[in-house]
Task: structure prediction
Amino acid sequence: MDKQQKIDKEKFKQIFKDHFAEFQKQNPRYKNDYYTEVIEKMLGCDEKDSGYAKYRCMNCGYEQKVPDFVVDEFAAVDGLEPGNMPVLQCGGCGKELKCID
Result:
């Protein structure tokens, strides 16, 4: 991750830290354990104790870290069991990424 991406990511997180509670007050349907947990996981992303899955393209070697909360969200949307991830495509060559973690 380059320096600009790190700055942008931290700005994004700060917006949630500063405004999510007020957003929940104005939009009560988002004030529940599910959304609070998802946001807390996102805010903890890249912390040492936060979990993630690592994927690698066996064709070109491209690697991608995917936070656990994203894996769980994809599983829920696609009707998969928690922890299962749909097929991911390599951003470099388009081949399938394999979970290596």
Summary: The mean pLDDT is 78. Strands lie at 52-57, 63-67, 88-89, 96-99. The radius of gyration is 16 Å.
